[in-house]
Amino acid sequence: MPPAPDFPPAQTEQALLERYAAIAYDKQTDLYEVIGDNSWNVEMAAGTITFGPGLAFPLQVLGTFSHASQTWLWAWANAQSNLPDGLLAQAGQLRAYGAQHGIELLSTSEFDATNRDLHIIGCIASGMFGASGYYLANYGQGTMVVTVKSELIDRVSKNDFARISQVFPQIIGVFEMNHRPAFIQYVAQKGYPVTETADTVSVAVGAGTLTATFDELGRLASLKGSSGS
């Protein structure tokens, strides 16, 4: 993954989602290509989550979702779990970012939540910290949300021409967002320069070009590719 573009700070939950949802969803494809549907096991002392032989990855713990109370608890607020400080770095940074910009999702220790919120938190953390993906680890009474980092996942071979064409239409079907800035930020984080007109954004990907056309409200109207000569 190329270095993150120098975007101005996103100052709302919605802006963070628009910046990171597509790139995070993109990386989830690579994560699940590596781990498949394998069961998971966390070794807190080692700071790893394991999905089978040769698939042990460093993790960061973001927080937990209680199935009984339907509430989210940030890891930095979970004193009873005695989590190692080294596994709380990302959660703590998100807390500080939320406090700085007045983003309640990131700075409120515990709140009523849904499964959708878990994915929003995972997407934001995955994108902001350049993780290889996030994982929702269901342990029966609740779900722990973690990020993982692994060169094995990052090296998964992909056809970005096809990947972008698949990922972006899917992610805007999952989350409400401003399509045009979300698309620009997505492809920029993948390292591709864009060319803009009043109603299009074109991206040179390899020998081809992807052209996204947007309506007067900035919503995606079409996403078409053309191969190079």
TrEMBL record:
<dbReference type="InterPro" id="IPR049249">
    <property type="entry name" value="DUF6882"/>
</dbReference>
<dbReference type="Pfam" id="PF21813">
    <property type="entry name" value="DUF6882"/>
</dbReference>
<protein>
    <submittedName>
        <fullName>Uncharacterized protein</fullName>
    </submittedName>
</protein>
